[in-house]
Amino acid sequence: MKIGILCYPTYGGSGIVATELGMSLAHKGYEVHFISSALPARLDITNPNIFFHKVNVETYPLFEYQPYDIALSSMIYRVVNLYKLDLLHAHYAIPYAYAAFTAKQMLKEEGRDIPLVTTLHGTDITLVGQHPSYKHAVEFSINQSDTVTSVSASLKADTLKFFNIKKEIQVITNFIDNSDFGGGVQTCQRKQFAKDDEKILIHVSNLRPVKRIMEVLQIFKNVHARIKSKLIIIGEGPEMEKINQFLEENPELIGEIRLLGKVNDLYRILQLSDVFLLPSEQESFGLAALEAMAASTPVISSNAGGIPEVNIQGETGFMAEIGNVEAMSNYTIKLLSDEQLLNVMKENAKQQAIRFDLQNILPVYEEMYAETLRKFNTVPTKVIP
Predict the structure, then answer these.
(1) Would you call 87 helix, strand, or coil by DSSP?
(2) Are 177 and 256 in contact (CB under 8 A)?
(3) Which domains does the chain have, with CATH numbers?
(4) pTM (whole model) above 0.90
(5) Which residue among 191, 253, 358, 385 has its CA within the 20 to 30 Å range from the CA of 172?
């Protein structure tokens, strides 16, 4: 089977899931074509079954904004024709599902069609999709897709609530490859971040406003006043200036907070940590929390969106209402003050991550592809056993 994957190339959840899915399919023998504006962050192009097609947007003085959507549609059309793809999979409604629909119309003019799967990831529904400039296009592109999936039951409910959707939405959760989190971490590496008697709190995100980074900092400040601890923040984004302002106002914490930016060795750093903080305002699923759990790190989080589908209250961590910094601080202090409870939750977190392992979720995607092709009355160019 030849599959075209359309995704953002960034470190965000949708790009990571799309990339990991495509690489896993390629390892099983599928031919996978990534179509994006840049090489996806985690994509390993050494696999001969993986192809990358960069969307180039030519500059022209007449355009105030460069027409990426048009260039994307044209590239999809070209790749489908050149490589005889069997199926397109758009990760994120805008612009990928919309551009894929346009490419499908171009193909129909030549007597060819191709099924389109659209996976909804979160902000394409809850944030971008709600804007009047995009809402009707989002709704249209979802309804024109042949199969629609959502990464959580919560996101499915939001989609049906905010849009007039005529298509059935199948929930296929995000996943992780637990094999990436195997092996221990040497003590000397942990000492690079904290002393033996200090706990390590960690936050990983793109530092957008919805991640509520100021609450991460306030939770740590409250915890640090009671427990010897360090905070590691991984990621880059628009809220970085607020972090710097916080440190200027709290100089006593300058040496207690490490800002690492983007890192390639995320898994090993997660394995050093005792608690993962995720006080988000919006989370369609909470992939970062699941990655933390795979590293045996309990999660202290808000109850936003799909987080309760991942973080089980009192088992894999604790949740509080969005914005309840006091409760999240107290939960963190409670957990870090009880070594027995911490160890139990670390094991529970690891077991929860195994439930979302790639080997459990990938067959669901494969069956969805097969069913989509059956409905579309097409025969794949290569049948995967």
Answers:
(1) strand
(2) no
(3) 2-175+358-376 (3.40.50.2000), 178-355 (3.40.50.2000)
(4) no
(5) 385
* Letter string b/e over residues 231-253, b meaning 16 or more CB atoms within 10 A of that residue's CB: bbbbbeeebeeebeebbeebeeb
**pLDDT per residue over 223-281, tens digit each?**
999 999 999 999 999 999 999 999 999 999 999 999 999 887 788 899 999 999 999 99
For residue 207, give the nearest of 283, 261, 266, 275 by alpha carbon: 261
Q: In what order do the strands lie in the sheet with 275-278?
A: 257-261, 229-234, 199-204, 275-278, 299-302, 317-320
d(CA 160, CA 125): 10
Give the Å distances, CA to CA, from 287 to 108, 171, 311: 37, 15, 11
* 301, β-bridge pairs: 278, 319
225: exposed, middle or buried (Cβ count in 10 Å: 0-12, 13-18, 19+): exposed
> How far is the C-alpha of 267 from the C-alpha of 146, rounded, in Å?
36
